Amino acid sequence: MNIFSMLFGIDIFFIPVLFYIIVFAIIILVLKWLGAWMFGIDKVIKNQEAIIEELRKKNN
């Protein structure tokens, strides 16, 4: 008996590890998106991408 199975009534070994990885990745992506939106970083990134595209056009 580990603490997890005592608290939640299920054994951790019966739950696929892949499920935990997917949920963790989704949480990280949502937090990144929320953080970027809150601080306006997404606009900065879009501006940087536009600047890079303009520089590429000028170099070609």
Structure explained in plain terms:
The protein is built from 3 helices and no strands. The chain is 80% helix and 0% strand. It has one domain. It is elongated. It has helices at 3-8, 17-39, 41-59. The mean pLDDT is 79. It is mostly helical and 60 residues long. The termini are far apart.
Report the β-strand fraction as a percent range. under 5%
Mean pLDDT equals: 79
**Number of DSSP strands?**
0
Class inferred from helices and paired strands: mainly alpha
> Any idea what the shape is?
elongated
Descriptive terms for the model:
60 residues, mainly alpha, 3 helices, 80% helix, 0% strand
Topology:
Blueprint: H1 3-8, H2 17-39, H3 41-59
Quickly describe the structure.
With 60 residues, the chain is mainly α. It is built from three helices and no strands. The chain is elongated.
